[in-house]
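Example 3.2
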Amino acid sequence: MKNIKYKAIFVLLVFLTALFGTVFFAAGSSINKENSPYSANKDSIVKWISTDWLLDHLNDANLVIIDTQPTIWDYTKLHIPGAIYLNENIFRIHKGLSPSSYAPTAAIEPIFREMGLKNTDTVVVYTGKGDHSGKGDGLEQTHVAYCLARYGVKEVYILDGGFEKWISEGKPTTQEYAKAQTSNFRANDRSKEYVISMDELKKIKDKPNVVLIDARPKSVYEGQGPWSKPGHIPGAINLPWTRLYDENNPRLLKTSGEIKTILDENGITPDKTIICSCGTSREATSEFILLKWYLGYPNVKIYEGSFTEWTAYPENPTVTGPYPYKQKDSGKIPTDTTRDTVNEETPGFGIGITLLGVLSLLAF
């Protein structure tokens, strides 16, 4: 009987270690925005910087500043001194059935060379609301940051708060154009590390340890939008990318504590495999780089094809409405072919059953 008790105690200790290890990892230490560059760890490819940090390092060697404002006219009107212009759409082509595929690495390498990027450079990206065009939504800088990392830039900094914060603080601006020098940049395709294909997604998306995020606005997730089939991929939960940014400035991150609270409320925890998606993967790149590099979650993938590729195949089902899976009538009862929720069981219930079983053994 003593052996049973010892085994029960051992099981309990292992269980509590795993449980609280996960909790502590999920909570993590807060990221101090006063210490630029900031991210989950010093080895992150993508980091964030403050406007003060950039002002102090404007003239650093091997620091390239890229303006990603919505149009060339926004850059022409005003930009940060020394910045060169890059439009985010240059990375996309029509490939197969997907009109929003990422261009081959061999096509991007000569572009980076003409811009003068070197493999030793650190690249700062920023965007603005588009004072001339009025088209900026804040995603330009995170989308370009993802693309730079994807095609092999060694270190990418995102200007937290973007051009609006820079201007509001009275920091220098100019209409002078920087001169781009040519280089011998060697691209490195990192897509295999980051990307999950449609076929791979189908195999794992319904597993209980996998969370599929749809980063689009709630109305689009539920059924609005230009796609041939409305709604979202079955099983995807809705977390609009804007929820993780300041309400008044979609280029300014909320604190890491605020972001983790939102993620936890949606069951997006670091112990799970997290897949980011949206319409064309543009919004998804924002959440991908935030989860992977700002918070350091270990298992994060991006479905680049997203809903555009998904709906290009008629056999792929979609779901409309606010729930991840199709509901019978207007209630919360799933159809026979779906699960109740994104997670198959309530964590608290499972924990209670496990503890009850161990305590029962201890009682003997």
